[in-house]
Amino acid sequence: MSSPPIPVEEPISRTEGSQSPVIVFEDVSIAFQGKQVLDGISFRLPRGETKAIFGVAGSGKSTILKMAIGLLKPDAGQIHLLGEEITQKPEEELFELRSKVGIVFQESALFDSLTVRENVAFRLMEKHDLSEEDIEARVREALSFVELEDTIDLYPSELSGGMRRRVAIARAIITHPEVLLYDSPTGGLDPITSTTIIELIIKQRDVYKTSALLVTHRLQDAFIMATHYFDRKANQMRPLPPGEHGEVPMSFLILRDGKVILDGDAAELAHSKDEYIREFIS
Amino acid sequence: MELTSPTEFARETVQSVQEYSSLAARAIAGLFRRPRYFADIVYQADLIGFGSLPIVVLTGLFTGAVLALNSAHTLQRFGSLSLIGQLVSVGMVTELGPVLTGLMVAGRNSSGMASELGSMVVTEQIDAMRALGTDPLKKLVTPRVVSTVFMLFFLTIISDLLGLIGGAIVSTVIFGMDLHQFWSSAWQSLVFQDVFTGLTKPLLFGFIIATVGCYYGLSARGGTQGVGRATTQAVVASSVFILLVDFFATKFLMAIFGYR
Predict the structure, then answer these.
(1) Mind telling me how many Å the CA of A128 is from chain B's nearest CA?
(2) Containing domain of residue A166, as a range?
(3) What is the ipTM for the molecules in this complex?
(4) Of A120, A188, A198, A227, which is most buried with the most CB atoms under 10 A?
(5) Furthest-apart CA pair in chain B: how many Å?
(6) Which CATH number covers residue A252?
């Protein structure tokens, strides 16, 4: 994938307590219509780390992401986002906190009545503190990052599934958020487009070093992320030399029957004796 | 059809009332908190107000005409054809103008709001908006409520006026009544109470149309079928609410101003 130059601007304003974990789940449970989906799960996402969450369909992966930013409230347990406990906060108080988080939804969730420009600029336009020229420049920067600058005047219905996913990534990163949440970013895409999306996520991770939660059911996506880095000079992802780790720590969390059965790095995943995990990664 | 237990039905009903009240309260509160979406209000006003103008014009004109047509025969029997202007003006201004305009706008816009917001819910656009730090109630509901209340007020005035014109055409062309006599009778029979009642109702109806449409839209579940269901429910519920509120508002205003 040929890429344009990476923007050098990094105006990231970090929340206080920069060494504390960005997301903490403590004994969180949630049920839908009597069915226990998550049953007392706990984990933390340290700042600067990327954590991939695996599980079969219906295991509560997307629910974790929605709970992490308060779109869903757990039945029990506590969730901390950027140092603030969010389960007791009313919706009105969460909007400010959410503006520090970027999320890419499973089906992109682009606003279909707005153009790509308006979709990507949505957050900036809502803030009302930037001039139109500044917004335009930021939109073009974000779209150039995902290599879709030429689609700026199109509507989401005029884009392919992969392009919509890339626009959703541009929309999520335009404000340089402190945390990024990816909900099955490669779901429903062909292998080549999936690799393009993963390359973009690796590029985002290695350029901006943003903490991220990545939900996926495709283990190969996470393995590519764990074994590749983004070469800024060559403008493409490359495999890491054997035995080396990337600059950004990568961890894995596996769900089964509403519980966390593994929360560790690639080595722990590879050496797990759990039969379910062995079957999952085989 | 799946049977629901009375307890479950009561629980769901109470929950719906609670959610609707919360939505209505937050839509009003959105008026007083920043950011304010003036551009969205103007856009919705154009969509709701000018978009509904043709059906409101037709409804008003033909309602006034048919009101005159039906009542003229009876009045003629008692030799009171001169009262036709009074009957049409009081009927249109206090009751038929506001209610029929409300029902027509409900049919057109309550369904539109429910389907638009419902589609946004099922495609996760509402969640995306919340995740992007924007309050969907303030961004989507408040502008629709403000625009509907504002535009329905003026649409009702237009409907009333056209009803009178329709009544005048029928009275003069079919029954040979003097136009001046019709207008004098229509104008002089109206008192402050009639006009106040007739112009208070569209404010209530506008609020009902927008909040009910938005409530059903934002409550839509279950894909495209759920959106279709929400659309139908929005039209039915807003129409029924309009008729119910019309009765109680009329009774309340009569109690305040005294019976005519």
Answers:
(1) 8
(2) 46-73+96-281
(3) 0.84
(4) A120
(5) 70
(6) 3.40.50.300
